[in-house]
Amino acid sequence: MLEPNRLLNIVNNMDTDEAVDLLSQLSKSKTHSLLAGLPKEKSQQIRELLQHSSHVAGSIMNTEFLTARHNETAGWCWSGCVANRRRKNRFITYILSMKRML
Length: 102
What we know:
By secondary structure, the protein is mainly α. Helices cover 47% and strands 10% of the residues. The protein has helices at 4-12, 16-23, 28-37, 40-50, 74-83, and strands spanning 65-69, 92-96.
């Protein structure tokens, strides 16, 4: 088993959906301990996703995404990612039509 601080660092640097997969395999006490050591925003996102059954789409949801309108440039998308770089996660970008549809 990994040292608690090492495991905490790994979980903190994982995408939220992947962290949920990992934490759902651990005991409740271990999960609670790890969540308590994570930054508040990351911990809250993981807690929300852990509430979903593993058999529903919510359990595999990714919360790190950026939406862009059809007329926004790659530079605009990049600036959105840079503005959120403190999260240390990669972003999935969805381009929306004028009707805000994928």
